[in-house]
Amino acid sequence: MLGKVVIVGVGLIGGSFALALKGAGAARQVVGMGRSQEALARALELGIVDSVTQSAAEAMAGADLVLLAAPVAQTGPILAALLPYLEPGTVITDAGSTKSDVVASARAALGAKVSQFIPAHPIAGRESNGPDAALAGLYQGKKAVITPLPENAAGDVGLVAAAWRLCGAIVHTLTPEQHDRIFAAVSHLPHLLAFALVDDIAKKPHAGQLFQYAASGFRDFTRIAGSSPEMWRDISLANRDALLTELDAYLAQLTVLRGRLAAHDGPGIEAIYTNAQRARRAWSEAIESAEPAQPQIQEPE
Amino acid sequence: MLGKVVIVGVGLIGGSFALALKGAGAARQVVGMGRSQEALARALELGIVDSVTQSAAEAMAGADLVLLAAPVAQTGPILAALLPYLEPGTVITDAGSTKSDVVASARAALGAKVSQFIPAHPIAGRESNGPDAALAGLYQGKKAVITPLPENAAGDVGLVAAAWRLCGAIVHTLTPEQHDRIFAAVSHLPHLLAFALVDDIAKKPHAGQLFQYAASGFRDFTRIAGSSPEMWRDISLANRDALLTELDAYLAQLTVLRGRLAAHDGPGIEAIYTNAQRARRAWSEAIESAEPAQPQIQEPE
């Protein structure tokens, strides 16, 4: 049982975490904190939190667990604001889509007390945002990745893991660097590629005609280009190095494929397509056999 | 009312066309033709066709409409086999995913009688294939693109349009060149890009770990990489010039974006992402308001 839990940022991510813990009867008290009084009021109204405050002193007093669920760029300023009131027994964690930059901000803001900061990233989301989008079941069956620091105490890491398990998540552990490389490849790069394609098409003189004939293949491929441009700009910048590495590898791949196409190399093209199809189908089958039946929730991870 | 309709290739595309016409009571007689005796027997068994033959003479005698629904690479050989028995009143059409190459093959095979060939492309499909996959409603509400030749008689073009409308499709007209450029951009390139990404990831040493953390964004983006590698190799080669043009434009776009990422150009990155998101959402809303409620059928067009 967690005692006092503080949610900094009462939107989709923080709100769902709060609802899940409350639903599990796992928190004695949930306090909401954030910049928007309107969001805080709405979270209170919806029963997502028991009380709200914009005072760090009030929030941090006797806090057991603090979840940072605000844009990753705010990590440093938020931690700096909390630091004066950070008690020795309090564990702080986050939910940011990138980890190395968050860790660097945390080290800069907290100094030695970074030992109390357990970086994490729940892999879940929806296209909607704000407190009204929060769902108690958002994390059910989803992965939550913890990227512990060498300074973290095992018990504190365990507390964060336990909290995510109470939300129904399956906890995985990676280093911040592993996390950023993995998500650069399977999440950040695809988003960049989809945004790039749709912008490319939209800027063509006959764009209207192109969109007129775009069908379900295009729809699936570009769905993630409907995501928040600001959030993905931030993620792209935050994970820039890993993303550049992945993008460069992909550009090299496209150059090879371009060469085979230009050379009319059917077997060479087929080799790439076949390997991809086999891998995609194997992955798809593994996913389907592993996942329990879930509601249709998008994961802009 | 169509009299004798011949379907060359009794798989998903040809079979669904036959079922739709039969369902509309629009064909007096449907004859199946093809290379696989097994597929023909199955189509007969399923009631997709009224009779089957592997004799061009038998198939073409008194035929009103002939649909080529075989791989586009077989266009030339099939037309050459039909030519000796092609009667003046018969209209031949096709369903190929590319048009300029099909037109070239048809001109080479039929000579002056290319006037009787009306190139077309129904934009519909499913991940399954063969006669068992055929559905009478496959084309309901979908687009069918006709790319008439200068030599085609208006009445013959009208016959093909009417046939597709009887299947429930909405008929559009483009030149073969317009068709190939449009579908290079919104269909063929996305397939190439998805295959390239999945192959790239699958070849990495830590591919297993990457697939482990891939979630719904990756799933949507790479869904079309589960498509037939042979079919897409053929489409890529058949539409090579237009596809190279689109791929080169996209490579240029990625190079620009890479530069902005390397330069930490947040506003520059956001500009591309924002333009893409707006275009994607506008298109998505236009699609949703235009489409009638439809069964969930994939369209690997």
From TrEMBL, chains A, B:
The keyword Aminoacyl-tRNA synthetase does not apply. Coiled coil: none annotated. Keywords: Oxidoreductase. Residues 3-291 form the Prephenate/arogenate dehydrogenase domain. InterPro entries: 6-PGluconate_DH-like_C_sf, NAD(P)-bd_dom_sf, PDH_C, PDH_N, Preph/Arog_dehydrog, Prephen_DH. It holds the Pfam family PDH_N. It comes from the Bacteria. SUPFAM superfamilies: 6-phosphogluconate dehydrogenase C-terminal domain-like, NAD(P)-binding Rossmann-fold domains. PANTHER family: PREPHENATE DEHYDROGENASE, PREPHENATE DEHYDROGENASE [NADP(+)]. This is Prephenate dehydrogenase.
